[in-house]
Amino acid sequence: MNTLKDQAAENLIAVRRNVPLIHNITNFVVMNVTANALLAIGASPMMAHAPEEAAALADLAGALVLNIGTLTREWVPTMILAGQAAATRGKPVVFDPVGAGTTRFRTDTARKILKEAAVKIVRGNASEVHALSDVESDSFPGGKGVDAVHSMEAVLPGAMRLADRTGVTLAVTGPIDVVTDGFRQVRVANGHPLMQRVTGTGCTASALIAAFAAVDSDAFTAAATALAVFGLAGEMAAAGANGPGSFMVNLMDVLYAMTPEAVRIGVRIEEA
Ligand SMILES: Nc1ncnc2c1ncn2[C@@H]1O[C@H](COP(=O)(O)OP(=O)(O)O)[C@@H](O)[C@H]1O
Ligand SMILES: Cc1ncsc1CCOP(=O)(O)O
Ligand SMILES: [Mg+2]
């Protein structure tokens, strides 16, 4: 049986071989960095948020990223339209609920997108996933912007129920990442604290998950292996960094130079 280490290496090779187009409807903060990270790993990014383009891009793309980081009301129908267009064509939809839990608008919109945009994978930090999970409660989930305030342990039971109820694969990131589809669960131990000291690493994780999901039809293994490869890249980038600035530059170089051999040796994906 293929181990997740082997699968991670195979997915990296497949991204480079197929160079999947990744359609991103994403936020203004990370448009540049996630496009560069997708290029560095070997995929082909396009940032496009016009509803007129959703169907044509769904024909061409290998996966779609929906990211609500700089959300305004006008973008929501386009996200739902693009999600449905992608799913109709069998293309995976990755949703990053940036800042869910922090404001009522963001939380309600994130829940609406989860319900209506044919989402296959959600990648968020613990607070964001908690805001999506806590649908039965009247109490507002809480949050403090785009960074997590909840612990992984506090939100995991709700996340498991959410995955079970919706059939969506959940990738909850933090110092340790947890990926679950309601049946299977793994922990990804790769990563480095500097990843929390630059903006856009969560959004980049979501974009790389989309690239892996474009070449791996199993959403669960795609998400787990993409997070492991990204976390490993973070470790390697931090080794030669003086701080957040050089870390960010190194991160792009390491994604570009990452080899299947380094992946097989370095990824740490554990059965939960
Ligand atoms: N303290 C940490 N140690 C190691 N890796 C981390 C740490 N914090 C975050 N990461 C990694 O950084 C990436 C972004 O995760 P996270 O910070 O949870 O997202 P967000 O930016 O959306 O809050 C993930 O790949 C995660 O594994
Ligand atoms: C700082 C900020 N504000 C709105 S979106 C955004 C980027 C968040 O990116 P990430 O969740 O990857 O750190
Ligand atoms: Mg985020």
UniProtKB/TrEMBL annotation:
Keyword hit for ATP-binding: yes
E.C. no: 2.7.1.50
Cofactors that this protein relies on: Mg(2+)
Residues that, per the record, bind ATP: 123, 173
Top EC group: transferase
Pathway the protein takes part in: Cofactor biosynthesis; thiamine diphosphate biosynthesis; 4-methyl-5-(2-phosphoethyl)-thiazole from 5-(2-hydroxyethyl)-4-methylthiazole: step 1/1
Leader peptide range in chain numbering: none
Pfam families documented for this protein: HK
Alphabetical GO biological process terms: thiamine biosynthetic process; thiamine diphosphate biosynthetic process
Binding site for substrate: 47, 200
An annotated Gene Ontology molecular function: ATP binding
InterPro entries: Hyethyz_kinase, Ribokinase-like
Catalytic reaction annotation: 5-(2-hydroxyethyl)-4-methylthiazole + ATP = 4-methyl-5-(2-phosphooxyethyl)-thiazole + ADP + H(+)
Keyword set includes RNA-binding: no
Function: Catalyzes the phosphorylation of the hydroxyl group of 4-methyl-5-beta-hydroxyethylthiazole (THZ).
Record-stated family: Belongs to the Thz kinase family.
HAMAP family the record matches: Thz_kinase
Protein name: Hydroxyethylthiazole kinase
Protein species of origin: Desulfococcus multivorans DSM 2059
